[in-house]
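Suppose a colleague, Dr. K., hands you the sequence of a protein chain of 78 amino acids and asks what its three-dimensional shape might be. Before reaching for any lab equipment, you can write down a predicted structure in token form. Begin with the sequence itself:
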Amino acid sequence: MVFRSRIYVDNRLHHTMALNINKSFWERGDFPQVVSNGSDYIALKNPWANGSPAAPFDKRTYPYLATLDELMPNTTLR
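The predicted structure, expressed as tokens, is then:
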């Protein structure tokens, strides 16, 4: 199954990028099956195994742009 995704800004008439997704992002990421945290080995599992091939981008997202005041509180940039 080919999953299509379209990314747009402001309105749906002018899209900025169209993707045909035929392979999951977990497969594209080429993640190792086991990772080490220094003292133990941990098996990696696909957190989006029950989702579509476009997971985690198959849900509506609303990006948030933070201001410098929010990123660096109690500092003066002058």
